[in-house]
Amino acid sequence: NINELVQAADTIVEGEVVNVSYFDYNILDTDFTEAQTRFLLKVTKAYTSNVKAGDLLPFDKLGGITTLAKEIRNSGRKPVKPIGKAEENTKVLVSFAGAPQIKVGDKLVCFGHRTTFYEPDALYATVGAYMGRFTVSPDGARIERYMPKDDAVDIDKESLKMSKADFDQQMAEAVTNKT
Fold first, then answer.
1. C-alpha span between 109 and 146 (Å, rounded)
2. Residue 5 pLDDT more than 50?
3. CA nearest 9: which of 157, 133, 113, 160?
4. E strand or H helix at 143, and its extent?
């Protein structure tokens, strides 16, 4: 719920995605990698006092674009037919729990926490992966969070689809009550 997200977040912002890039993160010095997406969010509204409108915040999220060869190796799945050298570098989308990819122009609310997991320079990750990232409708009137079909039946993991005005009211109360 919103109160739990507020308690877990260092920074809570609304903003527009102004840049998206992809990289492969090497897992614990192995040959395995995770496809990652880095997006730059231009803050339009700050729910916490440690950032302000106009700030640019880098966020990383699991899932992104990688090569077919890396995706096959990392997934452990056997290809239906062997892939040729020419196909190894074909770009493929890897989605975490089916979450949609971030695009330039997306309007999001992110419950973030600082991390140096992927890089020595601190950046942000959303609390609970997709659980701490909400999409604002193009007209700004509605907000909702992505939920995988398997999780959507879990009452503790609801989509929290609501009007933006109701969301802002709940946020104001939750931020005021943050311990």
1. 12
2. yes
3. 113
4. strand 142-145
